[in-house]
Design brief:
By secondary structure, the protein is α/β, with parallel strands linked by helices. The chain has 13 helices and 21 strands.
Amino acid sequence: MSSKILSLWSAAFFVVLASAAAAGDAPSGAAELPNVVIVFTDDQGYQDVGCFGSPDIKTPNLDRMAKEGRRFTSFYVGAPCCSASRAMLMTGCYPQRVGILAVLMPEAKIGINPNEWTMGEMFKTRGYATAVVGKWHLGSHPKFLPTRHGFDEYLGLPYSNDMWPPNPYRKKPYTPLLLINNDKPIEYISDLNDMSRLTTRYTEFVVDFIERNRDRPFFVYLPHSMPHVPLAVSDKYQGKSPRGLYGDVIEEIDWSVGQILATLKRLNLDEKTLVVFTSDNGPWLTYGRQHGGAALPLREGKGTAFEGGFREPCIMRWPGKIPADTACDEVAATMDLLPTLAKLIGAELPDDRIIDGRDIWPLIGGQPGATSPHEALAYYQGRRLNAVRSGRWKLHFPHDYTTIVVPGKDGRRGKGQRRKIGLALFDLETDIGETTNVADEHPDVVRRLTKLADRFRDDLGDTAQNRQGKNARPPGRVN
């Protein structure tokens, strides 16, 4: 489309905002503050990294990152869908706490509340340079964009890359897919050729941001648009993977991680920088192995309360601080990153709200005998509590879910089937695939986990029991 039309769209849908406040001076001792880079992919499966068992996707840079750092094999997100999961990462809270429960469409009138305290705002209190590069998806109205929530710079898409006019599953028109720089749309992503440049473009921006801020502490949040469908990959990786297009896309993301690690090494920032890699939810199994990921040995994927929907591959690297070539199977989650990083950089957490995350540095740093700070973990979908995990035990409450019966081909959706699961207890230490219900053999465990679930219901709500959460906060809204 023409630049004139783009300008009209910009004027109609994105008011020009006041530029972000100038970055404050770095605090005393800033030279000792660690840099932080979080790489957050979209719809990547638990198995879709070489060091997590992929048989047909090569990820040499992520594998090297694991050799030089630590793998987390029981690492969880806040929801089996995009926006809610990102809300947990950015606020350190369950999505139900902050009112972002599902996927936000482009026309949504809600987004992250301006009263919430994001990672960006936390890092700004300590004088960091901050940037978001990639898919934001916490509201597309200007008041919800990253530059209003603690980030100096933003380049990326405000929502998922399938939310565009060619998408046959959308039943009504909406704003075209816009690439935004800070608070202004700069171009349309109008076809797969445009989309194929995103991973490279994001990576180049991150490298440039790191170079420009090498002499001060920085925080980079890189939420890649891929491997969410429709998949697109640059020429340098097209046709390279035996796994097909999906494998090509993951291998290009691995290249991106390699570029970031190489930049840190070149600038002598390796030992000053914590790098975290994980994803927002499980794989979209509907699209089959050529266009969707694999969560094996976990059960199911995106959109379900099984492990394949919530458990993600996670790697953390910080030479000299994180023990190399190690693994941790203790329960941790994206909500734990905010309070952990706050403690690392000396930022004070607000005392006027509940933050659900906990400091997991003992796990990250490999302290002997360190255990999960969580007595229980909740698996919510929307405002419905579908399962809880405590230690080795996971209890599902009766609910419906969709399983794939015919995977899609050539980038098209396959066919799903609605099924029901009743009250079911699984021992994740011996049955990671959630195949054998042992509720009858362990009634005491069922009672204990049910009591833990009731605490979540009282606190955050549960539509299945018509309970209103006592401590849930509202999302932001536009008129």
